[in-house]
Amino acid sequence: MSNRPSFKDWMGQIQQRTESALEALLPDPGRAPQRLHQAMRYAVLGGGKRVRPLLAHAAGELSGAPAERVDRVSCAVELIHAYSLVHDDMPCMDDDVLRRGKPTVHVEYDQPTALLVGDALQTLAFQALTDAPAADDAATQLKMVGMLACASGSRGMAGGQAIDLASVGVQLSREELEFMHIHKTGALIRASILLGARAGRSLDAGELQRLDHYAKVVGLMFQVVDDILDAEADTATLGKTAGKDADNDKPTYVSLLGLNEARRLADEMLADARATLSPFGTAAGRLESLADYIVHRAF
Ligand code: GRG
């Protein structure tokens, strides 16, 4: 009989160890500048599904990485994610007052603090990769820093956000929408998976190509599902037109394809992700379950 934890238990364990690892990395809130340090902890701790850390650990399992070596990777991607949410919520961007069921950072603190929280979380992410307790060789660390920088910058997440901001009220084609999301949401999700795998044995070229295909599909699928969830929440609670972003009329997969077609697309992507993993066998079990979780949390 296997003593491998169920997917649900495994998720809980990874979420818990991520919380502890983040807690240990974040600056002491009692040390100056206290308000900034407190606000950083407010932004990061005690919330979120931790999807990116889960993907990093699942990819680490695939490559046989010890969980302690995946921790700093999973913290790094989660810190970048947290920074992006803090900045995205600010009045100059999406202007949101609630995040993870509590006031956003600029509401709880103030705008300059929110700006600095994002800045400081971003740099802490890179520090996490280089201050590794179970130190990798310098070449691996450098490669990881480069991968995370590329996924977060103007050719990754920040670039996708710029396209998103410029597309309010604009009719995008499916290719343009896909391009935006591959960058805005997909790049960091992809990096979480590839960095997690890098914490273990080197994958051969074929394995790496398959994992990268999975990572790209899941990155985009996450956004399709997010659009579906938003549309369902809008129609259920506000009676708004399905698919129009509740706040600023941004294009979404639902506004472009309709709800049923967007659901069909998510299912198709899930099938693609599963098929891509199948040659890995049981080593990819957690990655497969996570793809499933990402789609089925929606409907
Ligand atoms: C400000 C440079 C910069 C970038 C912001 C990712 C992003 C770019 C903004 C987030 C906007 C948003 C709500 C996008 C939809 C998809 C998404 C990333 C949702 C939030 O991620 P989850 O569901 O959140 O993983 P939790 O709270 O679970 O961590």
TrEMBL record:
GO cellular component terms, semicolon-separated: cytoplasm
Cofactors demanded by this protein: Mg(2+)
InterPro entries to which the protein is assigned, alphabetical: Isoprenoid_synthase_dom_sf, Polyprenyl_synt, Polyprenyl_synt_CS, Prenyl_diphosphate_synthase
Taxonomy, superkingdom: Bacteria
Key words, A-Z: Isoprene biosynthesis, Magnesium, Metal-binding, Transferase
Alphabetical list of SUPFAM superfamilies matching this protein: Terpenoid synthases
GO biological process: terpenoid biosynthetic process
Pfam families, sorted: polyprenyl_synt
MF GO annotations: metal ion binding; prenyltransferase activity
PANTHER family: FARNESYL DIPHOSPHATE SYNTHASE
Similarity comment text for this entry: Belongs to the FPP/GGPP synthase family.
Protein name: Polyprenyl synthetase
